[in-house]
Amino acid sequence: MTWSILGGFAIAVLLAAMVPGPTTALVIRRSALGGTWAALPIIGGMQVGLYFWIAASAFGLSALVAASDVAYTVIRVIGAAVLIWLGFQAWRAARRSHDDIAVDEQAARAKTWRACSIGLLTNLTNPKVAVFAFAFYPQFVAPEANIAATTLALGLLQVVVDASWFLLVATFVGRARAFFSRTRVRQWLERITGTVLVALGLRLALTET
Predict the structure, then answer these.
(1) What pLDDT, on the 0 to 100 scale, is given for residue 160?
(2) Environment class of residue 159 by beta-carbon count within 10 Å: exposed (0-12), middle (13-18) or buried (19+)?
């Protein structure tokens, strides 16, 4: 693989990471309410879910999801349910008092595994990530190369690029945490995030392909 192809791959996955979606909404919400460090578990979980589908594409599982209407539909429905549930959770949080939020943030910091699992589920239950991996990676893997090894290696690069982008977003938003901590601002952030997540969930549920 030439450096130009590798550079093209890095740029492509960076642009894919920058496209707004449910993961972006979750990172912004988490870092706005809890600071940059609070978003790290979600980012970590997202990368595990992303790499699962990359590894799956290396061994053909993503091809099955892309080709099977039943498998795609099942994952799509589960993914939509997860996004809608997260959206309603954000709407519920918008109704809490400032004291309740302070307690909730302490609990969130203590239970980083929950944030990690949310990031993991968001990517694991998104069939578009599976289809993306199946359609995208063959363009950068030469026929004569070891397909599995090359795909897994490129996947590690994508994870680094993806995590770096979301860490940058979390850092930028986390620096403005004082602004987002204001009750009215927080409530509007929760409502907007909740609406976006529910809308994305409904869109995923209603999208056939």
Answers:
(1) 96
(2) middle
